[in-house]
Amino acid sequence: MKIQHATHPDDLAALDDESVRARFLEDALFVDGEVTLTYTHHDRMVLGGVSLRPGEQLALPVPAELRSETFCQRRELAVVSVAGSAVVTVDGETYALSRGDVLYVGRGARDIGFAATDAEPGALFLASALAHTAFPTRLVPLAEASATAAGATETANRRTIHKHLHADGVQTAQLVLGITALEPGSVWNSMPPHLHDRRTEAYLYFDLPADHRIQHYMGTPGHLRTISMSNLQAVVSPSWSVHFGTGTTNYAFVWVMAGENQDFADMDQVAITEL
Fold it and tell me: Which residues, other chains included, contact 172 with Cβ-Cβ below 8 Å and sequence gap of 6+?
């Protein structure tokens, strides 16, 4: 398990580009035949990737750094299918996930495994937060997630926001999670930008062709840094940081938050002219 330490906003200006990437970017979450995990001290989230070859089965490890008997002893977990299809097993119960589906696994689950179908490889994004109580394991297909249209074609940010885990839907202890998909011709996400000082947020970009890139923005409104990102790479945005981006074509991304509250609307808007 990789450990990612917390960063103060005043430290950001002193970091060179490679140091910014090292502190906030997860560029190797998906390795064929492996479960890869990163522990970030920003709200103590764990982010991970599962890359499954056809017919392959993998188990969720319990890294020594967690100091727990099982991964979910003190944690809840979200499993997001971002490519292909897969089957997730939780304490003997099986759940079939297609692209865009999310499985919520509550605190106390013991045995968690992943399997690809025989026909195609699968990729699963993992996001975990500390949990003070246990809620039932629930599968949320993409078609059943709450969907809201946002943005406009004229400003190149027309998108659909799918909310899978949120206060008015599937109960969680901390996690708020969904998928945003941009329409063809739109490239800006989370624009106009915002801040929420009470929650850390991470993005996993996917559905991005191999020869295209995302420019992800972070930092304080008056002092922005950019990180160039490829398909299936994730970035952590601390609670003090804006988080928005633009691509060279349209794409999708998983957004996941953990922190003080689960109020999706608890954010401080930042005017474009303040950037």
Answer: 76, 104, 131, 135, 165, 262
Q: Which residues pair with 130 in a beta bridge?
A: 75
Q: How is the beta sheet containing 223-229 ordered, strand by strand?
A: 188-189, 242-247, 214-220, 223-229
Helix (H, G, I), strand (E, B) or coil at 228: strand
At position 5, the amino acid (one-letter code) is: H
Contact 196, 268 (CB under 8 A): yes
Radius of gyration of the chain (CA): 18
Instruction: List helix spans (H) across the chain.
Output: 17-24
Characterize 22-47 residue by residue with b for buried, 16 or more Cβ atoms within 10 angstroms of its Cβ, and e for exposed.
ebbbbeebbeeebbbbbbbebbbbbb
Which residues lie below 8 Å from residue 213, measured CB to CB, with a gap of 6+?
228, 229, 230, 247, 248
Name the residue ranges covered by the structural domains of the chain: 2-274
Tokens of 147: 């969907």
CA distance to 98, 123, 161, 247, 263, per residue, from 119 (Å): 13, 14, 30, 31, 40
DSSP state of 107: T
CA pair distance 67, 236, nearest whole angstrom: 23
The predicted pLDDT at position 262 comes to 85
CATH node for 2-274: 2.60.120.10
Residue 79, number of CB atoms within 10 A of its CB: 25
**Any idea of the CA torsion for 141, 71, 239, 259, to the nearest 10 degrees?**
80
Nearest residue to 216 (alpha-carbon basis) of 238, 237, 186? 237
Position 28 confidence tier, pLDDT thresholds 50, 70, 90 = very high
What distance lies between CA 79 and its chain's CA centroid?
A: 10
Query: Of all residues in the chain, what percent carry a pLDDT higher than 70?
Result: 100
> Distances from the Cα of 88 to the Cαs of 67, 71, 241, in angstroms?
24, 15, 33
What is the pTM for the complete model shown? 0.96
